[in-house]
Amino acid sequence: MTLPSATVPPASRGAESLALLLLVGGLIGVIFPVTKVAQAAGVPPLPWAFSMMLGAGVILAVLARFKRQPMPLTGRYLRYFAVSGLLSMALPNVVLFFVMPWLGAGLSAVVYTLPPILTLLMAVAVRIEKPDRGRVAGILLGLVGALMIVGPRGSLPSPDLAGWMALAFVMPAAVAAGNVYRTVAWPPGGQPVALAAGTMLGGAGWVLLALLATGAVADLPALGLAPWLALLQIAVTALTYVLYFRLQVVAGPVYLSQIGYVATSVGLGTGTLLFGERYSPWVWGGAAVIVLGVLLVSFGRRFAR
């Protein structure tokens, strides 16, 4: 498969890529505790997801207009917004909000360690990536860290929560598919902020359909139970996805997928510090291995020269 030259992200692994990776992963990691606090205040999952995506999408659309980045409503763009909105926003976020009360902030974040290896496999399958040994080694090292976290000694949920953990694995599959799709289908001349806005609004559209189908529209006023948290979530999400799409441009889908490793570490930290969640030493050892894997992917090619 050949992509238009203007849309192929360069294989950048420099300081900008690493800084963006840490920022985006850290900001996504903040979503877990904010969501848990909102749910504790009584805000239902679907209205929370809808307000986050719609609010952030509007902010990004205004920013795109200010930056003179066009957001055409042609068939190609609308298809891109619908598919990327479903895979990158609606599915993972809605599933997250449903499993969070059962799994906690830390273990909900753990499944975000899986998109890197899934993204790599998908990217190789559609021939948009030719992974070098250093990158593969780094991603596999991150996966080892993830397995240390979710393994028998890593304080998995009790067996009666296995169904919720299984549902949580929809998140990494959707995220990985979205990472690859956004690169493959990136419209010629498409600008990052405009595409981020369309993706966010596309995700809001899917959640709105879910609200209408389930009758949960009546729950929208419950956002008033945590208005300042909702505004904080909207602002953080808007900032996250400006940086997210920039990272996709400068580093490509496989490198970007490592944000899950960073988000997991942040989620574990906030789960411990803010909510008193406790994890075994294996979990923290796994987080350290994940960090080593990220560094190897970021700088392994440079060290190999």
| Mean of residue pLDDT values | 79
Straight-line distance between termini: 29 Å
Could you state the oligomeric state of the chains shown? single chain
Beta-strand content bin: under 5%
Radius of gyration: 18 Å
**Low-confidence runs (pLDDT<50, min 5 residues)?**
1-12
Class derived from helix and strand content: mainly alpha
Q: Largest beta sheet, briefly?
A: none
Beta strands, count: 0
Total helical elements: 12
- What global shape is seen? globular
Q: How much helix, percentage-wise, in residues?
A: over 70%
Q: Return the string of H and E elements.
A: HHHHHHHHHHHH
Describe this structure in words.
- By secondary structure, the chain is mostly helical.
- Helices cover 75% and strands 0% of the residues.
- The protein has helices spanning 15-40, 45-66, 75-110, 115-125, 133-150, 162-168, 170-184, 192-214, 227-251, 253-256, 259-275, 281-304.
- The longest helix is centred in the N-terminal third of the chain and has 36 residues, at 75-110.
- The radius of gyration is 18 Å and the shape is globular.
- The relative contact order is 0.25.
What is the gist of this entry?
This protein has 305 residues and is mainly α. The protein has helices at 15-40, 45-66, 75-110, 115-125, 133-150, 162-168, 170-184, 192-214, 227-251, 253-256, 259-275, 281-304.
